[in-house]
Design brief:
This protein is mostly beta strands. Helices cover about 15% and strands about 45% of the residues.
Length: about 190
């Protein structure tokens, strides 16, 4: 999903790293998770790692905004992309508990407008959905702000239109917040351009 869209890109980074130490953050799952959250998603207030579990080629990194009342916004799942000792970490999704994005299914082909949905637990939640691609800084589409939701394990759905998709893989992001931080929880999935 991110930061590399092909194995060839990841291998090119490995060669550059070995020759010059280029972008060493790709070797650290925590730094990669924060770069994904702050840089790619644009959630700049999420600026710390709240948990870290690394097991073999998989890592699960909790990220959170700074503040005494802020909890983990998401647990980002990363895997090593490639087989070499310097294989970089790649974001592949989130481990979801109280906020999930299950529609569209991971890896499914999509078109605009995109119907999204999942389940949420919480009080007075406001869900916003974005569609992004790695080759663009701006979102390809953002839902109207914001869809009210809440309760205990309740379904939610949001429709979002998008345009300008050029990359083969897109990232769909659902976020909620506004109580103690702009983004308090988020969930992602990867889809294919259809």
């Amino acid at each position: 999903m991110w930061p590399f869209t092909t194995l060839a890109q990841a291998q090119a980074w490995e060669r550059a790293y070995r020759s010059s130490g280029h972008q060493s953050w790709h070797r650290d799952p925590g730094r990669t998770a924060l770069s994904f959250t702050r840089g790619y998603l644009g959630f700049t207030e999420i600026d710390r790692v709240s948990s870290r579990t690394v097991s073999g080629r998989h890592a699960r990194i909790g990220v959170a905004p700074t503040g005494p009342e802020s909890g983990t916004a998401a647990v980002i799942h990363l895997v090593r992309f490639g087989t070499g000792p310097d294989a970089p970490w790649e974001v592949v999704g989130t481990d979801d508990t109280t906020f999930s994005l299950t529609t569209p299914a991971y890896g499914s082909p999509v078109r605009s407008p995109l119907v999204t949905g999942g389940r949420i637990s919480g009080v007075d939640e406001s869900i916003r959905v974005q569609v992004r691609q790695p080759s663009s800084e701006a979102p390809l589409g953002t839902s109207a702000c914001c869809t009210p939701a809440g309760g205990d394990d309740q379904p939610w759905n949001v429709s979002v239109s998008f345009s300008g998709a050029r990359d083969p893989v897109l990232t769909v992001i659902a976020s909620t917040g506004g109580h103690v931080a702009e983004v308090e929880r988020f969930t992602i999935t990867a889809v294919r351009t259809g």
